[in-house]
Structures are given as C-alpha cells and as structure tokens.
Amino acid sequence: MDLSDSPSEAAFRHEARTFLEQHVHEVPADLSDESDEAESIPVRKKWQRTLFDNGWAAITWPERHGGRGLGPVEQIIWNQECVRAKTPSSINIVGIGMAGPAIIEHGSDEQRDRYLSRILSGEEIWCQLFSEPNAGSDLPALATSAKRDGDEWVVNGQKVWSSAAHFADWGILLARTDSSVPKRKGITFFLVDMTTPGVTVRPLRQMNGKTHFNEVFLDDVRIPDGNRVGEVGGGWGVATTTLLHERMAVGGSMGVFNMDDLIGLANSRGDVSPHERDLLARTYIYDRCLELLNARVMSKLAHGEIPTAEGSIAKLALTRMLAAAANTALSILGPRAIAEPGIWQNLFLITPGIRVGGGTDDIQRNMIAERVLGLPRDEDESRTLPFDQLRRN
Ligand SMILES: Cc1cc2nc3c(=O)[nH]c(=O)nc-3n(C[C@H](O)[C@H](O)[C@H](O)COP(=O)(O)OP(=O)(O)OC[C@H]3O[C@@H](n4cnc5c(N)ncnc54)[C@H](O)[C@@H]3O)c2cc1C
C-alpha cells in the first residue's frame, strides 16, 4: 500500500496549507475546548465566515451548492491540515456534515435556497435531535411523535445528548409519523426552528464542568410541512445519509490530541521517570497504529469503497489512544493534574464521551464481528414487527 499523496492530493494539500498559513492568525492561537463559550462561539463563527468567503467551507459539497465538489480523501487531507495549523474546531459540524448533505440529497429546491448558504457562512448553526432516553444505539426505536394537522405537524417527545442545542438556530429532527409499521418505516425527517414555541432546551453539565449537550423537550411543537425532508415515512433513509457523514466527521476528529504536544509536556518536565517513558512509548505506538489505520481508510476511500469495518477499528483505536495519552499526561503532571484545569485534564474527562458518541465501543465491536469475522447478527424481531407491537420500557 502506497501511503504517500498522489500528485493531485499533494497539490490539494499544498493549496490547503498555504491558505491556512495565510489566515489562521486571524483567530486567537490559544482558543481550545477549555475556552469559555461566550468567548469561543463568536471567534468560531468568524472563522467559519472566513472559510466561506474563501471557498473552503465545505470540501465535499457540490460546487453548485457552494462546496469544492471533492471527495472524502480531500476531506481527510483538509482535516489533517486544520489539525496541523491548529484552527478552531468547526462551529457548524451538524450543519455542514449532516443537515446540508441531507438537504442537498433529499430536500426541495426551496429548502436548498433557504438553508444551504446560511449553513456554510455560519449565519445559522444547527444541532442534531436524534437520540432519546430510550433510543441511542437502537436509534430506530425513537418514540417522539409527529401528527399531521393540515399543513403542519404537531410534535411531542423528548430528545437527549443534543450537542450545541443551547446555541443552535435550527435542528434536524427524527420523529415517528406511523406506529403501525416496523420501526424503520414509520420515521420522518424534519427541520425545526429552535425558537418555535414548545421547544425547551435544558443544558446537561458534564464532569469537565462544561455543558456541551442538552435535553430538548418538544411539547406541541408545530412544524410546517414545508420543513419535511424526503417522503413521509422515508426519514430513516434520509438519516442514513447524515449518519454516514457523521462517521466521516468523527473519523476526522483527530485534532483532540497531538503527540508532539505530549512529548513537549514530557520535555518541559525534565525528570520523566522510566515508568512515564514507558507510557509515552506506548502512546506513541498507539498513535502510529492509528495513523496507519487511517491511511487504510483513506486508501479504500480513494478506490471508491466504503470502509465500514476499518472505520469501526479506527474508532476503537482512537479511543484507546486518547485514554493512553490522557493517562500519560496526568502521570507526568502528577499532583498538578488535580490542582489546576488544563487541556490534559480536559482530555481525560472527555474521552469517555468520545467512546460513546458516533457509536459506542460495543456497537463498533458488533460491526467488526459481523463484517470482518462473519459472525451472525443478533436475532432481532423488532426489525419486522410493527412499532406499536414492540415491548418497550
Ligand atoms: C459527546 C456526545 C455527543 C453526542 N451528541 C449527540 C447529538 O448531537 N445528537 C444526538 O442525537 N445524539 C448525540 N449523542 C448521543 C449518542 O449518539 C448516543 O449516546 C449513543 O448512540 C449511545 O446511545 P445511548 O447513550 O442511549 O446508550 P445505549 O444505546 O443505551 O447503550 C448503553 C450501553 O449498552 C451498550 N449496548 C447497547 N446496545 C448494544 C448492543 N446491541 N450490543 C452490545 N452492547 C450494546 C452500549 O455500548 C452502552 O455501553 C452524543 C453522545 C455523546 C457522548
């Protein structure tokens, strides 16, 4: 397997790096996940506007919709260059990675005209209203209902773990419009204005003290039928488009950790013990293995294949590597680790969440068991029984 860039990939990497080197100074260098949201959101919105103004807001969107019309390999190269340049994290991950692609592929012309450029410019921020208290790994079991009333739908239910919902302008919503058919067949996909009466957003505090995600309550929320994407009952197909893009976005989120920074931390201490040297070496090996796994993913993508099993293996490797990095850093920091906040302490506290978001470790293992080892799927009568005949909590 040749791991070097092809001539066209190298040219794209050079163009991306040149742009980032010219513009990254426009945002503060010390902006991190530690930064206060009141400070970081305007900066990340401004950065999004800079990307939009210069044609870098969406690598894989078609050119006629404001993207670059390139493929997933270029997307990964762009992600790598953003990590290298230490750009702020994207303010509109759901908008660009999920809502936009769903609207482009399944939406109407009116919807494309209304939403797409505002997503790219960062004028309107989006969140994903999919997971529910009883529907996470088994997302098709969602129970939030939407009932038709003339030209509107009336939505009732509860969503949870909705990242960024506390500052989002719009949400992509999955709701059940028919309970008399099997669970995947009765779901419809909507766009919901987060200021609609009946939408209540309640932030959830995490163990790092931040409120990254929220509970969202929907009480008699009226959504115009014009905000439906795709057919009534066709929402699972639309959601699959967004979940595929979500996996790509997760696969590209390596920017949460940089091996050179960890080596820099060790060097700044001077008296690193043999045990800590051992931890560092292990983390380095995990990091290199992950790099090679990602190269395999890129190679498959470049050949037009969908790397589902490799993606699962890479996600498991990522969480193992992040846990090793956080433990190593905390060991090097010693008592200072609990005396003050910092990026390593934050990494330690957010890694359990990364194991869960975008498909838990167990779900990744199930996919590897089925797709690599060829083991049979679990028996699951809920795939075929009507939703209203399923036993639920
Ligand atoms: C940081 C973060 C951000 C998120 N952002 C969003 C968001 O913006 N919007 C949104 O809609 N959701 C979001 N989520 C929710 C996320 O998609 C779910 O948490 C995830 O799908 C798991 O669902 P759950 O939490 O309900 O756990 P469950 O599905 O209830 O799982 C509980 C446990 O059971 C295990 N388990 C479940 N099913 C199986 C199985 N078949 N085989 C073996 N083990 C199994 C799981 O691995 C887990 O350990 C986010 C989550 C995190 C952590």
Describe the structure.
The chain has a 4-stranded mixed beta sheet with strand order 1-4-5-8. Strands 2-3-7-6 form a 4-stranded antiparallel beta sheet, with no helix packed on it. It has 3 domains: 7-91, no CATH class; 126-234, Butyryl-CoA Dehydrogenase, subunit A, domain 2 (Beta Barrel); 253-371, Butyryl-CoA Dehydrogenase, subunit A, domain 3 (Up-down Bundle). It is built from 12 helices and 8 strands. It is globular and about 70 Å long. It is α+β, with helices and mostly antiparallel strands. It has helices at 7-23, 37-53, 72-85, 93-106, 109-121, 235-251, 259-269, 274-302, 308-333, 336-339, 343-356, 361-371; strands at residues 126-129, 145-149, 152-159, 170-176, 187-193, 199-204, 213-224, 228-229. The model is unreliable at 249-253 (pLDDT under 50). The chain binds flavin-adenine dinucleotide.
Bound molecules: flavin-adenine dinucleotide
Total domains: 3
Say which CATH homologous superfamily of the largest domain is assigned. Answer: Butyryl-CoA Dehydrogenase, subunit A, domain 3
Q: Helical region count?
A: 12
Q: What sort of overall outline do the alpha carbons produce when their principal axes are compared?
A: globular
Q: How would you state the average pLDDT, rounded? A: 90
The CATH architecture of the largest domain is Up-down Bundle
Q: Please describe the biggest sheet, giving its number of strands, its sense, and whether it closes into a barrel.
A: 4 strands, mixed
CATH class of the largest domain: Mainly Alpha
CATH fold topology of the largest domain: Butyryl-CoA Dehydrogenase, subunit A, domain 3
